[in-house]
Amino acid sequence: MNSVSVKFNREDRPEFVTELRKRVNSYFKENNISKYGNRQMKVKTLFMVLLYLLPFTFMLTGYITNIWVILGLWGLMGFGMSGIGLAVMHDANHGAYSKNRKTNERIGRILYLVGGYPANWRIQHNVLHHTYTNIHEHDEDLGNGFIRMSPNQKRMGMHKFQFIYVPFFYTIMTLYWLVSKDFQQAFRYKKKDLLKTQNLTFQSALTKITLSKIIYTLVFIVLPLAVIPIPWWYTMLGFLLMQAVCGLSLALVFQCAHVIEETSFFNTEENGGSMENNFAIHQLKSTANFAHGSRAFSWFIGGLNYQIEHHLFPNICHVHYRQISGIVKATAEEYGVPYFAHKTFAGALRSHFGMLYHLGNGSYEKKIAEAQPQKVAS
């Protein structure tokens, strides 16, 4: 992470932020509803957990021996795994699942069930990504050397083909978390003095990560290898299929909200860390929505097709995003603030892979350079 501190411009249209908060707060007050989760969240939590664990239970009974059925069950587990991440633990670790802090903490620990470590996730997502969205060397969601997701990252020859090979890296994302990423983050966050934001020492974090990985491996790899009556390589293939389904689902939902052709990217080295906009407007410039018309899709992915609303109000449960999106959009338009939204998820995908293509072959920089004189002239 860049050592330059980021300073958002509080003088940039503060009336927009004040009015937006006022209108959203009024919505909840006038309708006498809580900003937190409701019965829908409880039903969704049960659904996602069962979607993840029921197929696993069926396989462990030993009565299912058909290879294709077993692989299909592993695939279903992948969707359940992603559903837990997108629609359950995400709200809990933002403190939005319940008004009760302990309930949020307990539900947030469900991340252990899918191989992750909650404290690291909160640092990467809540502290770094949400605070420094699309800011080079601050937002860890912008990828690594294999994938160029920002024009501020160095372009290498292999990036010319990243729009082709990126899906593979997305499919191994959760496997990488399980095997290596959490350990790497623990060491990195120790150096950055970020573990203290979660009231953790390095030793306690490392111990929890190690124990959780061992238990996860015993339950979801060793146990099925020992119990399911099929050749071991099919079981491992099924496990990898689960990871691939989950990783691809998570990556596409999140990246289609930030790394697309419409959003902006920022570099603190250009201005000593001073941002042009206030925090809220920065979020609107670096975030986009998609597929507002698909309620079933929105339900499954935890309302994260409303990423703008989520980034502006991360402490509001996602079950309310559709209702407040109209307020946010209208207020943004009134104050001349951008509100990016693709009509469909397919449109967002095209924009994401188009952005990867342009970042990979250098055409993004050429496009910006050509637009710059027009911007000055206007």
Describe this structure in words.
The protein has 378 residues and is an all-alpha fold. The chain has two domains: 14-35 and 258-377, no CATH class; 39-250, no CATH class. It contains 15 helices and two strands. A two-stranded parallel ribbon has the order 1-2. Helix 7 (173-191) packs antiparallel against helix 8. It is globular. Mean pLDDT is 94; it is low at 373-378.
Short descriptors:
2 domains; two-stranded parallel ribbon; 378 residues; globular; 15 helices
Question: What would you call the shape?
Answer: globular
Unreliable stretches? 373-378
Mean pLDDT: 94
Q: What is the count of distinct domains?
A: 2
The class by helix and strand makeup works out as mainly alpha
Helix coverage percent = 55-70%
Please give the radius of gyration in angstroms: 21 Å
Number of helices: 15
Strand order of the biggest β-sheet: 1-2
Strand content: under 5%
The multimeric state of the shown protein is single chain
The end-to-end distance, rounded to whole angstroms, is 36 Å
Largest sheet: 2 strands, parallel
Query: What sequence of helices (H) and strands (E) makes up the elements?
Result: HHHHHHHHHHEHHHEHH
**In total, how many beta strands?**
2
